[in-house]
Amino acid sequence: MCEFTAKQGDLDLRFSPAPSSLEGITGHDAVRAGRPSHYQAEVTLSGEFKQLLIRGRADGFDPVQNLVEEIKTFRGDLRALPDNHRYLHWAQIKIYGWLLCQKLGLSEIRLALVYFDIVTKTETTLIELHDANLLKQYFENKCEHFLSWAKQELAHRAQRDQALTSLGFPHPSFRPGQRQLAEAVYRTAYSGRCLIAQAPTGIGKTMGTLFPLLKACPRQKLDKIFFLTAKTSGRKLALSALALIKKHEPELPIRVLELTARDKACEHPDKACHGNSCPLAKGFYDRLPRARNAALAIGNEHTDVLDRDMLRTVAIQHQVCPYYLTQDLIRWCDVIVGDYNHYFDLNAVLYGLMIVNDWRAGVLTDEAHNLLDRARKMYSADLSQISFRIAHRSAPPTLKKVLDHLHRRWNELPKEQVAAYHVYPGLPHKFLEALQQAISAITDYLTEYPALSNQDLLRFYFDALHFSRLSELFAEHSMFDVNKVTNPARARSKNTGTNTRLCLRNIIPGPFLKDRFTAAWSTVLFSATLTPMNYYKDMLGLPEDVSWIDVPSPFQGEQLKIRVASDISTRYRHRERSVAPIVDLISDQYSRKPANYLAFFSSFDYLRKVMLSFREKHPEIPIWEQTPGMEELEQQEFLARFKPMGCGIGFAVLGGAFAEAIDLPGSRLTGAFIATLGLPQVNLVNEQMRERINSVYGAGYNYTYLFPGVQKVVQAAGRVIRTPSDRGIIYLIDDRFSRPEVLRLLPRWWKLPFASQA
Ligand code: SF4
Questions:
Q1: pTM
Q2: Could you tell me if the CB of 262 is within 6 A of ligand 1?
Q3: HEC per residue, 302-339
Q4: Cis peptide before 532 (omega within 30 of 0)
Q5: Ligand 1: which of 285, 318, 324, 325 to mutate, judged by most atoms within 8 Å of the beta carbon?
Q6: Tens of pLDDT along 112-149?
């Protein structure tokens, strides 16, 4: 209540290293240790106002001095404490003050804010004497303010749930397979469980998952739905589906919010997030209530969703930061559409708020086959010695000693290491100790100089914090490896020619994600490629009782011809000699049926080899090529070449931007050539991963190479048939495509040119 009603002034996110929870507890204990024996610690208080029951715990009360205390720990300069925090602290102690006056029948009370510096161990105390009647007025004022908001929110919830109960499907009928998916999602929400749903492209998965979960909200008392995607395109699809639902049901006051990354939402990327720098941070809390009301009024409208553009418009109108307005709105919106990071990351905002507020949330994870790789990145950390050297050189003299020490420890690490890459059996404890000392020293320095603009040092500092945090969570799910890069010229001249990259590499993110699945009321992971289930269950840490549904495809085997070029090997050692037959195969198909095709390869290098040879032999056939790091506009141009009734061949890499989540229906795409089994490269890192996974699950090769590889092939092949009227052809180019263990992983509706699919 205090947070909602009392924050005023600027948004201020200047670097202020907050004490850890342990430091906070120790600080509170230190303050209380100096209090007299009659001092009462942790005084539980409560009071009522109309329908509100207010409860809280004051840090301490001294009955002799008639003084109630609120203790706050901090480090650094107390004058740098943002004003909005100060207002909040005073609001809190005033509420406790009144509750104590009421409880003990006092006519006045002394209120004390005790700021305890956890570094110098000193107290700064601000004391004010307050009249009980004025405190009562203050209390009632805050309660009234909160109550009117709470009533509005309760009314919204009742209206929302009533409208959801009678919500109808926004299309005339379900598509084939869509109803089956929707029923499975509803059952999952009903039982509060987790579901893996493999459902083919084209059945309307976004609507088929959102609609039943919305329907489940009233009965299951769901506070929120989180729709999480791997890519912006998935977010847009979800927002369109929700806009359609709202349009279809004019009385449905459901609030839909899109989350955007800060760098994309920021209006002043050249400024810092505090009132002295950014005009949208200045007076942010003073203008937030109006901006919030305006946004929610739009959110309640039947046609509008609070997407990035809409939020920007509201924010600019009310002169508040769009990013932090969005963060505030999470609390008040019903459906939040965001990225995987927003829920699965180590410091994910949606997960954090859900735990703190005890929300009951239904989670939908779109294109969930991407979650494994994304989660591995979230829970991995690396430190580059080159970046460290740069930060070291530019660091202020006070940090020199501690960074020198870290440098020495760092250099000791690979001393015994002969190979360029090595996985260590355990963590480098001496190095981590030195790293921790460096972090503490930089933290203290930043506390003293919060406006430090040394980007090299700051970058290293944040990398080091992440590395250190993950080292504390290190276990069998991850490995510690060192990559040694030696510069021979420097090695000869100065003996400092070795740079290393240290990596805490997550292999199995399951142990990290497990809690996310158990904390949600229900979770649905859906995609066209989630085979085999155990692979995802093991690697993502899904609950034992996770259920599984494989929705049959709405497409017929007759729609898609499959050809397996089993006389070609695309293995690395056979690449050169595979080029000519692949070129012939593509040109033969093209001359039989000139149309639009996509040809997929395992790497840009392989792609280029085949493409150059193709161009030389068939200059008359239009071709276009994916290049590394294509910008969004270039990607759009690539896709625009696939015109209806057009002719030509787009060369692309498997697993890249054109191998999934693109839609080229009808004659825009007639066929695909997949010249690779998609297996990740056999290299030192992957081999170590294979060994580690093997030791945990005994399926090292399949989990490291085969399953991720074939999953990419099926995703790419899925670009060809998009509607029940499409016809197309797929060439699977590699002899291994005829092996039973591969065939078993291909979609069941494909008619393979073998007697029976294994
Ligand atoms: S607009 Fe940008 S700089 Fe300003 S407060 Fe928002 S995120 Fe920070």
A1: 0.90
A2: yes
A3: CCCCECHHHHHHHHHHHCCCHHHHHHHHHHHCCEEEEE
A4: yes
A5: 324
A6: 999 999 888 999 999 999 999 999 999 999 999 999 99
